[in-house]
Write a structure and sequence with these properties.
Number of strands: 25
Mean pLDDT: 83
Shape: elongated
Strand content: 15-25%
Number of helices: 23
Helix content: 40-55%
Structural class: alpha+beta
């Protein structure tokens, strides 16, 4: 019986080649998009899942009144281990704050992220060097492992995994060390590294003012996490009160964040990956649903052609279940062909998709879940797209269909039109979303940022600069003088952070108010290099010796935060230093458009601030190449500690990375809009062909009675025009709500424009009229005699 159903199905599909091609093609395009989304969802939801301790690992975070962070003080790890038996292991992690240069002769490696962990953290995170995890001896020894790729860069011909001596920093630094072996870098983890430094213990001698570690806990099974979290919060506050006043710890608490939350929805940090995943998943499902609707609609539209076939088979004794099975087999064959074609399309598009989202996905990877998800998707599509048409077709009453009465069914008429309206409604939502995203991106790219990143070069640097010099740091002034001698270089400065990144946060008090604000430790000419505008007072100047000791510049938001109406000359205190405010700058968007400008203090001397390592140089536009070449050749003399390792990036390109997420979203919605319009047009084309074919006699009669071509075109187009207008009216409120919610994620945004709604109506109506008119042209130009000669 199955063989017979298969043969009939293949014959019917071949007989209706045009409709079959539209069905399979539309479904294949939607499935290709869905496969890519499924791959991405599998990737994003499986971070660290290979860790055998996955469900028992939690990070300790600190909650302040203004923000939350996963960076905590090292001493907290020991007291947690001592006080809570339900905590099986406690580990400390510290990320490197700058790139490290490692050399082996002429081979040079720039490590982006060396992860320092204690032995307990290595076990908790399942960090396994190729030779196995070894516990370091004593408190001094550290075992450093580099990734397999890094080892190959330094030692191209190395075959074993024995320790090797390497140099750190410039060739003339004289600093050497041992690489204990290699380790496989886990790119699918929240703790990505290109090297690991394992110590027996970390954080010895640190205090509760130094929040620069990550504490990870491995809990025993069936631990009451909520109760433990509250107990750790109470313990942390008690520890702080040993050295601080009650007012200083007010509003400070600790929390636990499961490893399973860390990538998509961390308590500290942003949930951007989660939002992108949800947006992609919804789009992928909607596109697939639209394709299934297209499939269903065309199947119902074809119903009258199959009605007599069903009637005859029922008269000959066929049961409804047999007919349903026959039609489902036809739909299954089309769905199977669509999946094969979709896999080919997905493979072709995958490189661009990987490049857009900076991932390395592969369809033919045995570790992904597609091997069981695709058969499941095939069965679901067959049921969703085919069950209703199969039930409708198999349910025809022989006495009626053999008389040709099924075409008058109002149920099928309303269903077909309703599904078509839904398709166009989704297309309109995507078009409006795309135009709105484009408008917001143009707004961000054209707005005054409050500073100028063009012509500013960020030089990657390992030397530590601080005044007065901290241990191991040097004075920046001699370097500035050498760089300014190079033709084309206008200004040079150094700071702890650059625009586009995150600033430091510390507690400062002024005007009787104490609160956490951003801080940036800078050098002379910092504001001039970035062309930041001064509101009142002055910038830092080497004409004033106090500027290197206890002077500060704040931004407008900081002045407002502390209620300083006349801030110049007033005092703001932080890290035990009373700073005299000498200037107020206008706010500038150092962290993009999604976050409001934070209250920020700029100082030259901050005893508890980070090292100044971020060198910025402003160069004349027409002498850029010449100046960069001179910097590279002279860098060993200008900055001996970096030696021959001169590397740079353009600051405007670095800052532009803040727009990366929105550019990804723009690309996604562009693809979604194109796909939905394409699928809707395919369905509309076939549907218009069907409607035209069943009205061919009506058109012939009208032409005989004197109707001209324009009237016929109007007759055929009017019903489709009405449906598209209904689709627009239905989708506009939905699109408005969705785009408004998205715009609310920006601190600085456009007002909701009218243009996207007008544009969506023009696009959908124009495409509908063109598509239907192309299909109706044959009927309009046909000879009426051919349609009526058998009547």
């Amino acid at each position: 019986m199955f063989k017979l159903n298969l043969k009939i199905a293949l014959r019917n599909l071949w007989k209706n080649k045009g409709i079959t091609a539209i069905n399979v093609g539309g479904l294949a395009v939607a499935l290709a998009a869905f496969i890519l989304v499924t791959l991405y969802a599998n990737y994003e939801t499986s971070f660290d899942k290979k860790n055998p301790n996955y469900d028992q690992i939690y990070l300790v975070g600190i909650s302040y009144p203004e923000f939350k962070t996963n960076y905590v003080a090292a001493p907290l790890a020991k007291v947690i281990k001592q006080n809570f038996p339900e905590v099986e292991a406690v580990g400390l992690i510290k990320e490197s704050s700058f790139e490290l240069t490692i050399k082996n002769g002429k081979n040079t490696l720039f490590t982006r992220k060396i992860l320092a962990v204690d032995y307990s953290a290595a076990k908790i995170l399942n960090i396994q060097p190729n030779g196995g995890l070894v516990k370091p001896n004593g408190d001094v020894e550290r075992l450093t492992y580099l990734s397999n790729e890094s080892i190959k860069t330094l030692f191209p011909s190395k075959k074993d995994d024995k320790p090797e001596m390497v140099g750190f920093g410039a060739s003339n630094s004289g600093i050497t060390g041992t690489i204990a072996g290699s380790i496989k870098s886990n790119l699918h983890s929240n703790f990505v590294f290109d090297g690991v430094s394992i110590a027996n213990e970390l954080g010895n001698g640190d205090n509760y003012d130094m929040n620069d570690y990550t504490i990870c806990l491995q809990l025993k099974p069936r631990t009451d996490v909520v109760s433990l979290e509250q107990s750790i919060a109470n313990l942390y506050k008690a520890e702080l009160l040993k050295s601080k006043k009650i007012d200083e710890v007010k509003g400070i608490s600790a929390f636990l964040d499961p490893l399973s939350n860390l990538h998509l929805r961390p308590k500290a940090g942003n949930d951007t990956p989660y939002k992108i995943l949800i947006a992609l998943s919804v789009l992928g499902v909607l596109i697939l649903v639209i394709a299934c609707i297209n499939f269903t609609n065309l199947s119902i539209a074809q119903a009258t052609k199959r009605a007599k076939e069903v009637g005859v088979k029922k008269v000959m004794g066929a049961f409804r279940l047999q007919l349903t099975t026959q039609f489902l087999v036809e739909i299954f064959i089309q769905s199977f062909a669509a999946i094969i074609l979709a896999l080919i399309l997905a493979e072709l598009v995958l490189p661009s998709f990987n490049n857009l989202f900076q991932v390395q996905l592969a369809i033919w990877d045995l570790e992904n879940k597609l091997f069981w998800q695709l058969p499941l998707i095939l069965c679901i599509i067959t049921l969703i797209a085919g069950i209703y048409p199969a039930v409708v077709l198999s349910g025809f009453k022989p006495a009626l269909v053999l008389k040709g009465n099924f075409s008058t069914s109002k149920q099928s008429y309303w269903l077909r039109n309703g599904l078509l309206v839904f398709q166009f409604s989704m297309a309109v939502v995507f078009i409006i979303s795309l135009v709105t995203i484009n408008s917001q991106l143009k707004y961000m790219q054209s707005q005054d940022l409050g500073f100028k990143a063009s012509q500013v070069v960020y030089i990657k640097n390992l030397t530590l600069f601080n005044i007065p010099a901290k241990m191991g740091s040097v004075n920046f002034e001699p370097l500035r003088e050498k760089m300014l001698k190079i033709p084309g270089i206008q200004l040079a400065t150094v700071a702890t952070y650059i625009p586009g990144g995150t600033n430091g946060i510390n507690s400062y008090s002024a005007n009787g108010i104490k609160t956490n604000i951003d801080f940036v430790n800078v050098e002379f000419d910092y504001f001039e290099t970035l062309n930041v505008k001064l509101k009142e007072g002055r910038f830092f100047s080497n004409k004033f010796k106090a500027d290197t000791v206890n002077s500060a510049v704040i931004n407008e938001t900081a002045a407002a935060k502390y209620g300083l109406k006349n801030p110049i000359g007033q005092t703001i205190t932080g890290s035990g230093v009373p700073y005299k405010i000498v200037g107020v700058i206008k706010d500038f968007k150092s962290q993009g458009f999604e976050n409001e400008v934070q209250p920020t203090i700029y100082t030259i001397n901050d005893p508890h601030g980070d090292y100044k390592t971020q060198i910025m140089v402003k160069i004349e536009q027409n002498r850029m190449a010449e100046a960069l070449a001179a910097l590279k050749s002279q860098w060993p003399k200008i900055n001996p500690q970096d030696g021959e390792d001169f590397r740079y990036e353009f600051l405007d390109e670095l800052y532009g990375k803040l727009f990366k997420k929105q550019e990804q979203l723009q690309s996604v919605f562009f693809a979604a809009a194109i796909l939905t319009i394409l699928i809707a047009m395919l369905g509309l084309f076939a549907f218009a062909k069907y409607i035209t074919s069943i009205r061919i006699k009506e058109i012939a009669v009208r032409k005989i009675l004197g109707a001209n071509d324009l009237q016929i075109f109007k007759l055929i187009n009017i019903s489709f025009f009405v449906m598209v207008m209904i689709a627009n009216l239905i989708s506009w409120p939905l699109a408005y709500i969705l785009t408004q919610k998205w715009l609310e994620t920006f601190a600085y945004r456009i007002e909701m424009p009218v243009l996207p709604f007008v544009f969506s109506a023009i696009i959908t109506i124009s495409l509908t009229i063109i598509t239907v008119s192309i299909q109706a042209r044959n009927a309009v130009k046909a000879n009426p005699v051919d349609a009526l000669k058998y009547e």
